[in-house]
Each structure stands twice: as structure tokens, then as C-alpha cells.
Specification:
It is built from six helices and six strands. A six-stranded mixed beta sheet has the order 2-3-1-4-5-6, sandwiched between helices. Helices cover 32% and strands 22% of the residues. The radius of gyration is 21 Å and the shape is globular. It has 209 residues and is of the alpha/beta class. The chain has a single domain (7-188), classed as P-loop containing nucleotide triphosphate hydrolases (Rossmann fold), CATH 3.40.50.
Length: 209
């Protein structure tokens, strides 16, 4: 594969409402943070060109956002939103136990909707956001989060603050590498996915053997 080929990496960011998915995207792509939070309905994608091992790739980070009441009405958004994903980022708020406990459900939903070729090896990254909040308000310890990540196949784990830009670049660097490796694996597998049909004509030349 040519190193000059333009590569588009699709990264899906999932997690409960209010954990900071949009803020992480904006901090990574635009180096901006807004304290105002407004839940919207639909899907939001931001793109950024990055260098991964001297390869210029375009990261397309997507965050599906809708309120609970709107889920059924926008269920059809699912398949198109997940299709062609190269990496999935599971985000929770370290100060919110419920958002952490929901990670399994988000992971399962992704695997069902995206239907990756090899679910066992598909790259996920876990991000515990909002570590800038006072320590005494924290509800999920680093140890607990790392234990979860290890139980899912040693998923990379990062603790971030979208507000203070803490570990955001580092997390997305690993996300980009994981996505690129997945994209290359998919492309390699695709080269050998066409079935080979072998037709034996046993009756050629009148032979009935």
C-alpha cells in the first residue's frame, strides 16, 4: 500500500450524556473548551489531519448525541453512524458511577451496530474524563477503571480533562494509531475476501469417470 495514499480514519465516540464527548472532540480538533453544555439530537463529526508514524491521515471523530426521549425516533441513524468505523472510544465521567457502569452497554451496542469483521480484535479505547474536578468528588478510581479495561482485552485507558487539555492529545494519538492499524487490517483482509470458485468439468471429452 502506498504511503502517499490518503487515509480517512473513522472514530466513534460513545458514552452517557454529559460525560464530555463533544468537549473532548472540540479540545482535540479546535483546541477549545466551552463550559456551556447543550444536549442536541443527531450526530456530530469533526475532522483533523494528523501524522501517524510519518503518515498523514485524516481523523474523523463522530459523536452521536440525542436525548433519551429522542432515541426511538432516531434509531435509524444507528447503522449509518457506525458503518466503517476504525476505532471506538468509550467515555465516562470519573465523578459519575452510572456513566462508568454503562460502558459495557455502549461497547455491546457498538459491536451490534457496527458488526466489525473481528469483534475480538476490534480496537477500543477507554477514557475517564473530568479529572479536573475536586478529588473528593471522584467516584471511579483509576484502579477500578484499569481493571475494567484489562478485562476487555487490555483496552488502552486514559484519564483526561477536556477543560484543561490534560492527556487529550495523548489519548487521541493512541486512538489514531489503533484506527490506522484497524484500517490497514481491513484493507489487507479485503484483498483476499473474494471467493475462489473451482469448477471441475468431469464430463469433458465424454468422460464419465
Amino acid at each position: 500500500m502506498s504511503s502517499r495514499k490518503k487515509v480517512l480514519l473513522k472514530v466513534i465516540i460513545l458514552g452517557d450524556s454529559g460525560v464530555g464527548k463533544t468537549s473532548l472532540m472540540n479540545q482535540y480538533v479546535n483546541k477549545k473548551f466551552s463550559a456551556s453544555y447543550k444536549a442536541t439530537i443527531g450526530a456530530d463529526f469533526l475532522t483533523k489531519e494528523v501524522l501517524v508514524d510519518d503518515r498523514l491521515v485524516t481523523m474523523q471523530a463522530g459523536n452521536r448525541i440525542w436525548d433519551t426521549a429522542g432515541q426511538e425516533r432516531f434509531q435509524s441513524l444507528g447503522v449509518a453512524f457506525y458503518r466503517g468505523a476504525d476505532c471506538c472510544v468509550l467515555v465516562y465521567d470519573v465523578n459519575n458511577s452510572k456513566s462508568f457502569e454503562a460502558l459495557d452497554s455502549w461497547r455491546d451496542e457498538f459491536l451490534i451496530q457496527a458488526s466489525p469483521r473481528d469483534p475480538e480484535s476490534f480496537p477500543f479505547v477507554v477514557v475517564g474524563n473530568k479529572v479536573d474536578v475536586e478529588e473528593n468528588k471522584r467516584m471511579i478510581s483509576s484502579k477500578r477503571a484499569m481493571t475494567f479495561s484489562q478485562s476487555k482485552g487490555n483496552i488502552p485507558y486514559f484519564e483526561t480533562s477536556a477543560k484543561e487539555a490534560l492527556n487529550v492529545e495523548q489519548a487521541f494519538e493512541v486512538i489514531a494509531r489503533s484506527a490506522l492499524a484497524q484500517e490497514e487490517a481491513e484493507e489487507f483482509n479485503g484483498e483476499f475476501s473474494d471467493p475462489i470458485n473451482i469448477h471441475l468439468d468431469n464430463e469433458r471429452d465424454g468422460c464419465a469417470c
